[in-house]
Amino acid sequence: MYGPSQRQESLLLLLVFSGLFGWGAWQSLKLQALPVVTYGLGFLALVAGFKALSLSLIRLRNILMRRDAMAATTQRGSASWATSKDLKRAGLYNTSGVFLGCDTDGRPLFFDGEIHGLTLAPAGSGKTIAFSVPALCHSSLPIIVSDFKGTLAVMTKPLREKQHRQKVFCVNPAHLYTEHLGAPARYNPLQILLDDWMDSEKNKDLIADAQSIALQLCPEPAATGENTFFRNGSRKILVLVFIYLIAFHGAGKATLSEALSLLRNVKELIEVCEVAMFSPILNGELADMATELHYKLTAQDTRQVDSFLEGAVQALAAFSASGWLAESTSACDFRFKDLKERAATVYLVADPTKMKVFAPWMGLMGWAAITELTRCQNTKPVFFLLDEATNFRIENLSNSLTGLREFGIRVWFVIQELEEYARVYGRESLETLLSQTEVKQIFGASGAKTCELISRMLGEQTVKSLHVNLGRMRYDPIVQSVGEQARRLLTPDELRQFTDTILFIRNLPPIHAIKAGYHYVKPWSDWVAANPLFGSKLQGKTRVRLKY
Q1: Predicted confidence band at 38 (pLDDT cuts at 50, 70, 90)?
Q2: Residue 465 pLDDT > 60
Q3: What average pLDDT does range 60-78 have in this prediction?
């Protein structure tokens, strides 16, 4: 490598040649021997040229050696960002599927496939304008949307009706923005039990479905090792009451509100047990459940069953006749299974100020939707957009993702933090979520564990580093060397400051993408209505134009 010592050597040689040239010229003039001068100058020129050539060759050699030394290798890691060729080969420039943003050159990216997806977007990162609204703008598939603020429904309901020609149902128990959304639609989750009861072939599903609803309303905590005894007791009572209402009263009174009223009246509950004890329904299983509960309710010590009853009442408390949810769950104005047969959009609108009330209902509605859709005998795709997915819990959702794909159900999770998902669903469920979502869209991360995980997912690349040894003494030669080391594509600290989008798509290197809100895309900017929380539409210079 051409260094300071070589430059010193060249300077010394120049001085020597200059001295020899001066001495030769003086001697030639003194002796008046011009041929000697000519020969001397020629010789010096030859020597100088040879030296210059040798130094140039040395310098060229050093340049080539430096290039080879600094060339990237994969010995310490092979991570790199996806290229435009990778994106084209994967079909991400096609305009079908889910909108994921733009590449670094401004070209829109879409992914189409029978997949599940995950959008990780901390608060204020633009998930609504850059993903949720664009998904509702672009996709012509039947869609079910969890909408905790009601803003998605207000902004996109008109375009779902007009542009995609879909029937829209807004299940809106709190009656938010009715001037925009119209009269709320109703859905009774117990209708699934009524279906089981009315169909002799599905009778065998009745107890299992009743147990699933009870588990959804009275779930096990994500943390393991907690006592399940009293929750099991509460769920048994719920199952008994649900089946009794279905079998003895039918659709008119088979509601969650009626179940709650029955549980609050112990005397009436005892009478129910006395009726059901002699019933042959379900091959005597209902009678067995009624006999067990009747014995506990009429025993001298009822403290245990009182705890069971209290748990069951608390599970249904949100469906009180005087509350928000009674009317909304009193009947069915639509069925989720209809989305397999016709183009429709269902908004599940909650009230963000009453999360304790609406979270159990939202989880139950999610369970009902999945149950109905998976029992249809076709694989027509339905898009399930779980916005703010950690605000509620759908039992066994993560473990069901593989099976849901077989039924054409595409679930897309939108969450703020991975650790929040682990708190709601459990650590193992988080690992399942990460493995079963083929597309992961990262709008940012703030939590230490989340940043570390994403950084590891990005992988490591091999980087070169130049080391300089100055020696011990002032005139010691300077020695330079090149070493290799592993470096993450983005460190956790760099991720916290990363304002663009990271895409993980199975079988592709990580993708560096740019967020693009709906207001930068034509015709979406014309289709989307104003956000009711702000009162006006977002404005932006058009970056992308799409044809429909």
Answers
A1: low
A2: yes
A3: 61
Residue 171 to residues 179, 192, 292, 381, 528, Cα–Cα distance (Å): 14, 17, 38, 21, 20
Question: Which amino acid appears at position 495 of this protein?
Answer: L
- Strand locations in 150-277 (E): 167-171
**Domain boundaries of the chain, sorted by first residue:** 4-70, 75-115+438-516, 128-187+335-433, 191-319
- Is the CB of residue 222 less than 8 Å from the CB of residue 424? yes
- Which spans in 385-467 are helix H? 401-406, 418-425, 427-436, 448-458
* Cα–Cα separations (whole angstroms), residue 505 to 36, 435, 460, 520: 79, 11, 17, 24
**What CATH number has the domain spanning 128-187+335-433?**
3.40.50.300
* Rounded CA Rg of the chain: 36
CA–CA dist 157, 136 (Å, integer): 9
pLDDT band at 2 (very low <50, low <70, confident <90, very high): very low
User: Rounded to whole angstroms, what are the CA distances from 98 to 84, 95, 505?
Assistant: 18, 9, 13
**Whole-angstrom Cα distance, residue 457 to residue 495?**
12
**Tokens in use for 69?**
């030394």
- For residue 396, give the DSSP letter: T
Q: What is the DSSP letter of 132?
A: I
**Residue 300 pLDDT level (bands cut at 50, 70, 90):** confident
C-alpha distances in Å from residue 514, one per residue of 85, 100, 131, 357: 17, 9, 12, 37
Average pLDDT of span 176-183: 96
Compute the average pLDDT of residues 536-544.
Answer: 91
Beta bridge partners of 168: 345
Q: What is the pLDDT of residue 15?
A: 53
Give residue for tokens 């047990």: 273
465 within 8 A of 485, measured Cβ to Cβ: yes
Is the dihedral angle over the CA atoms 226, 228, 234, 239 positive or is it negative? Answer: positive
> Which two structure tokens, joined as six digits, stand for 500?
């663009």
185, 172 Cβ separation under 8 angstroms: yes
- The one-letter amino acid at 311: G
How much is the mean pLDDT over the chain? 87
Q: Provide the CA 121 distance to its chain's centre, in angstroms.
A: 8
Would you state the pLDDT for residue 199? 86
Which of left, alpha, beta for 444 (phi over 0: left; psi -120 to 50: alpha)?
A: left
The yes-or-no verdict on residue 8 having pLDDT over 70 is: no
What is the DSSP secondary-structure string of 75-100?
SS-B--PPPHHHHHHTTTTSS-SEEE
pLDDT in the model for residue 73:
58
Q: Which amino acid is at 434?
A: L
* Pairing, β 409-415 against β 479-488: unpaired
**Cα dist from 65 to 58, 61, 465, 468, 521, whole Å:** 10, 6, 15, 16, 49
Of 509, 527, 443, 513, give the one whose Cα is nearest residue 107. 513
